Amino acid sequence: MKTPLSMLLITSMLGISSNSWLFLWLMIEINTPMFSFMLSSTKENPKNPLNYFIIQSLTSLTMFIILISTMTKYPTTLSNKTLNISMHMIAFIKMGLMPTHNWMMNMMKSMKKTSLSTLMTVQKILPLKITSMITTSQIIQSILLMNLILSSITIMQTTKTNHLLLMSSIHNISWTTLNIQSLTKISTLFFTIYSLMTISLISNLSLTNKTSLNLPNKNSNINLIISIMAISGLPPMWGFMSKFMMIQSMYLSNTPTLTLLTLLNSSILMLSGYLKLCYNMMMTNTKMKTKIPKNSPWLLISNLISPSMIILI
């Protein structure tokens, strides 16, 4: 599994370091079979590698056709509004944003820790690069704001871990995509923090073997609860600090008030949903032992010291 994961990281880094559309497409083409091979090597659901490969290949083929036809007419840039929207939608499908998220939801039901962490983090990098290279129209901004609102509402109604992770992904990726062109450095930091929080949460969910967060579990631990609080945006943890920096930067760059209010309201809804999950976890089993697993103290430490590290940055 180490070789496919290494190739995924290499293709992602090479892709984001180039401004060539064809080179980016080539890295995506190499990346797709590598992740499919990674899924097949972990002996998970045999349908997952094929489903992933088909969806990614179809979107990549569409992307290639658009690039070839566009470069013939517009050699320097993708300036046509329709083509910009098409490229954004390709990236949204690849990342599993609403309303094209069902394929990812079905895959996540049977994925193991490493594959799931990779899908939620590393596999978002190249699609995000696509969105950073084209202008974000008002239509795309509206779609992203709807993703923020719907994911926040959904998180308040779910206790399934795969729903939790997917809605969290949609929420945070929407934040990143909204600002990745105008606030590239802040968006990159935001995505990095999201990735670390997601890996921490998935690791803790794996340690407790929980598929539903409102079911009693003797192995539930304080580390899992803190990971959920961190990704929820509860002050002063990772999620809060990253969103605070993003909102501050957007305000200074004269972002429309309606957009800022939508971001703030969706974050409050998301926080309420996560706190409800934490309450359910603690109250469904009043004798739950909140212990720190001996094999993962670094996860707890990283969640606790992160706010101080961000302030220093």
From TrEMBL:
Where, per UniProt, does this protein localize?
Mitochondrion inner membrane
Give the residue spans that cross the bilayer: 6-28, 49-71, 83-104, 139-159, 186-208, 220-238, 258-279
Catalytic reactions of this protein: a ubiquinone + NADH + 5 H(+)(in) = a ubiquinol + NAD(+) + 4 H(+)(out)
Q: Which InterPro entries match?
A: Complex_I_Subunit_2 (IPR050175)
> How does the protein's chain sit in the membrane according to the entry?
Multi-pass membrane protein
What is any one of the record's Gene Ontology cellular component terms? mitochondrial inner membrane
Gene Ontology BP terms: mitochondrial electron transport, NADH to ubiquinone
What is a single molecular function from GO for this protein?
Answer: NADH dehydrogenase (ubiquinone) activity
Tell me which EC number(s) this protein carries.
7.1.1.2
Q: Where is the signal peptide?
A: none
The UniProt keyword set, sorted, is: Electron transport, Membrane, Mitochondrion, Mitochondrion inner membrane, NAD, Respiratory chain, Translocase, Transmembrane, Transmembrane helix, Transport, Ubiquinone
- Name the domain of life this protein comes from: Eukaryota
- Similarity annotation: Belongs to the complex I subunit 2 family.
Name of the molecule in the record: NADH-ubiquinone oxidoreductase chain 2
Native organism is Demodex brevis (Face mite)
Which gene holds the coding sequence for this protein? ND2
